[in-house]
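To assess whether the prediction recovers the assembly geometry, we first specified each molecular entity separately, as shown.
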Amino acid sequence: MANVFRTLVIKEVRDLIKDPKILFGMIAVPLIMYPLMGLAVGVSTEAVQGSIGTGNFVVMDLDDSDFSHLAVHYFASVPNVTVNLVQRQGIDTALKEVERYNATTLVVIPAGFGDNITSRRGVSFETYTPLKTFGVAEAARANIVSGVLASFGNFLSAYYIQSADPTLNASVVMHPLSILASSYVNGELLNISPATLNNVMIGQSFAMPIAVMIVVILAMQIAATAIAVEKEQKTLETLLTLPVSRFNILAAKLLGSTVIAGLGAIASVIGFTYYINSFVGSFGSAASVGFNLSPSPLYYIILGGLIFLTLALSTSMAMVIGVFADDVRGAQAVVGYLILPVMIPSFMVMLGDLQSFPADLQAALLAIPFTYAASFAKMAFVGDFTIGVLGLAYILFWTVVVLYIGSRLFSSEKILTVRFSFGRKKKASSPE
Amino acid sequence: MNAVEARQLRKVYGNIVALDGISFDVRQGEVFGLIGPNGSGKTTTLRILSTLIKPTDGSAKVLGHDVVKEAETVKSLVSYLPGEAGAYRNLTGYEYLRFMANLYASDSKEVDRMVSDAGAISGLGDRLRDKAGTYSQGMGRRLLLARALMIRPKLAILDEPTSGLDVVHATHIRRMIKDYVANFGVTVLLSSHNMLEVDYLCDRIALINRGRLLAVGSPQEVKSSVSAPNLEEAFMRVISNG
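The predicted structure of the complete assembly is given in tokenized form:
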């Protein structure tokens, strides 16, 4: 019987993988699409970083004092900043100089700038920034200029403090307090602030729940159409008269769907990881901030179990409901209804912490079996695996219930006679 | 022992009586035809005998095995070709036949024998290397008939085997059925609308209308019983009498 079952599974996998819609839509496209998206993001990011990496501005000095000269000298001393000093002229013509130098901003040092500093009064710069594209790079370049000008303010503060009392440390006066933040994770003390740690862990918080969600949705899409395809290709009647138990047919279809979904998920995760790395790299990695944590083997065992059972439950549910669909289109409509309970908890636990939700919302989410894998995926370093173990038992219970219903349904002639046109009017099969 | 023994078979779908207590026997090694108009109960009868559906009442045995109580045994003796059937579009003809053969054969040698037989029955030649989705209706039907016969079943149940086919494909299929029965002693139970086909293929026939059996016998006996010159006329007279 194992040979017959293997034959059925191989046929399922072969039939699915040879389907261009599945081969391209679920395996090739994620492998190509996500890296291409990542490449596009990477190219854009590099272009933006390249263009904002250097500040380039035009300075018109209307004061011509020692302090205005000092300011220009200060600007020019900032790394990666190019200062183009232009003659005194009208703003309109000076803006043409901005264009000529391919600069970002015209900075005007007004008359009386030096006198005001000498008199310890406030001073100001005037800036004129031509905007053309309203893009990220344009705004970032303008921010660089603002940053350089603002840093001159700090320089002035330090100058005022030092000249008022040479015994004072200007840096201490300006920044009298510093916070040495540490994080305590799973029994290990890390000299890193929680904010930095969160940035590093962004992959863990987002990538895993998204990956789980993708796998489950893919598996459901394939499983829901498994019987509908047989009906559409008019192969179901023949299949049901073969010398194979109907439970074996059902199990082979579940396994075949899961294998293809697994391949699709691997393709999605590889593509998605490449995509995430193309811009998350800038947040830093665990190693780059000086620590290296890895979850315990038990975490991986429980997470693997949760993902497997979630897959088993979702494919079983999709297949059982898909049995009633007239055709593939109807089956896909069924999946549309089932995707919501998968996506909602995944997104909620991805964006927030389950424990921080109100009690009734927590209860509602925990009643949905699809919450557990996504929620537990975030708990790599928590050390408390209670929710994972509870999840395993809860999902197993529902999987057994749905599989039982599925096998009963599959064993009856309802699989041939009961049909619903989802989204259209209901009809019953007519006997010959 | 008869290949089929149907006794008082009834099948009811809601308010519709599809079969109203029909009884007939099919002898081993013969080609038996169920003849009747659309909705007469032919397909329902064939579906019950192939274990797809259960009768509401009555009983049926295939080679002595009850189709309800011994469904798994019956499935191993029967090969069913549904009236509206297809092959997996993404598999080639060979892959499809090999998949089916693997479910029946005891070893790889037998698988090869079955696939080889199926190649000969279908007459599709190199087209078996193409995906079934690229086949015409006639080629698809030839592939499916080859699948049904290659396992040399004790009983082949063929629901309108040539329905919707052109004369070339239909003739090929009829010849294949006739040859296979002669060479391997397979019993065939088929349904058909085509009286020419029935006359050519069947040793005995049963006329069925509105779920009830009206006449059973050889084509000649049925024609003689109502003094009809051909089966078509006999069919019309039996229906009007019944």
